[in-house]
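User: I'll paste a sequence; please echo it back and then give the predicted structure.

Assistant: Echoing your sequence first, then the prediction.
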Amino acid sequence: MTQEANTVILQILLLAAAVGALVYFVRSGQSVGVRASKRIAFGAFIVLNIYAVLRPDDLTYLARAVGIGRGTDLLVYLLVVAFVFGMLNTYLRDREISQHLTNLARQIAVRDAELTRRESELEQRLTALEERAAGTNGHRAAVTEPTADEVGTARSTRS
């Protein structure tokens, strides 16, 4: 194959990859939570990517206009900036998720402590009711019936 045919094949592959990335980004379930600014930035990145693939000489011209020798160097610099942005975004999202997990763990710990305290109180009340019901002199004392919730909770803690 000629050099020109290889270039066209490579351009087609690069364009397909760019369009595939755009479709994946738009269709992914996470895209609902992505801010509009990130969507716009990613869309602009894909459009510039497609333009650079179709017109590489324009990228070289632009690079020389801003004082960079080659279009490839400009593209690498832009990719480094995009990579840093992506890494920072991932770090901030992971930090937010970690904070949410910490808050959930605290809420669960407080809830479990409260449940344990309530079960202990119910167990004590049920024991006291049983002792009163048995009576010390054989007479049955007047006992207030525990609620179904109290009995169920006390029985489940004995199991």
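The chain has five helices and no strands. The chain has a mean pLDDT of 79.
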